[in-house]
Amino acid sequence: MRYFAYGSNLHLDDLSRFCRERGYDAGAIRPLGPAWLPDHEPVYHYRSIARRGGALSVREAFGRATPGLLFEVDGAGWRALDAKEGARYARVERVVLFDGSEQRAATYVVREAHREAAHVAPREDYAALVEAGLAAHGLPTAQARDAARGLDVAPLPRALFVYGTLMRGEVRAPILARHAASFCGPAEVRGALVDLGAYPGLIEGDGVVRGELVELTEPADALAELDDVEGFLGYGRAGSLYRRVVIRAGDTYAWTYRYAGPGGAPRIASGDWRRRGAGC
Fold it and tell me: Are 126 and 249 found together in one domain?
């Protein structure tokens, strides 16, 4: 089982320091890269004695995702993490999004008995540690900053990458228009495009897929409708036609829908739905 970190353990120097001081092997907790915990948001509703203030946790929040880091962990690493998180955090299994695909991973959340109803402000040094950890891995920090201040957490990602019938001028474009989605511009992502007849599917690949980026005014409202349109049944559930994942489009992290149906569909060599009849 892999491990998803979203708080102070993003700061690898701080994690290594803890392991070194307590006699654990930091090499047993090996970072793999940025990942996202979908349909969750960060929250400070726990008072940590060790941190002398609020310490971060996550809670369910449809249409939002919490950025973090995925680790490979062996037995010694789990002992170190269990000790660092303490008895007030529970190790739970969740679906995380890593490199555009779903992964089962463990993370830590504050046990219900230790959650407070009101915001618990963290010390400035702890909040800065979390932000520095996010920034070190090229992840956005605004969400963590809002959570530390007790503000409404901004939805992330707010962008959506579309590459088929949801693009401007295409048959499903009115869906996004109903949600006041703003056109941000053309965009490209890594992958391949297959022709499913009336619509395309984004799959894994080493090519370039061309589409558009839009900004969603209320991601939760738009994604609730789009999940139904795209046949996404939910994380951890089988049978979806498409899976809702987070990808990198240039400098922007965005939601998109990756095809999860049966294979064998012909490739669109151009990687561009509007040029599906072109040879390249």
Answer: no
One-letter amino acid of 38: P
Calpha distance 153→143 (Å, rounded): 6
Q: How far apart are the C-alpha atoms of 134 and 101, rounded to whole Å?
A: 20
Q: What is d(CA 218, CA 227) in angstroms, rounded to the nearest whole number?
A: 14
Element (H, E) at 234: none
Which residues sit opposite 200 in a β-bridge?
195
29 pLDDT higher than 80: yes
Claim to verify: residue 137 and residue 165 sit in the same structural domain: no
Whether residue 172 is found in the same domain as residue 84: no
DSSP for 42-57, please give it: EE---EETTTTEE--E
Amino acid 247 reads I
pTM (2 d.p.):
0.94
What's the start-to-end Cα distance of the chain, in Å? 41
197: in domain: yes
Antiparallel, parallel or unpaired: β 242-249 and 101-110: unpaired
Residues 186, 256 within the same domain: yes
At which residue do the structure tokens 């307590």 appear? 22
Q: pLDDT at position 2, please?
A: 97
Q: Are residues 127 and 38 in the same domain?
A: yes
Predicted confidence band of residue 279 (pLDDT cuts 50, 70, 90): low
The mean pLDDT of 217-246, rounded to a whole number, is: 96
Q: Are 189 and 181 in contact (CB under 8 A)?
A: no
Residues spanned by the domain of 7? 2-149
- Please indicate, yes or no, whether residues 260 and 138 belong to a single structural domain of this protein: no
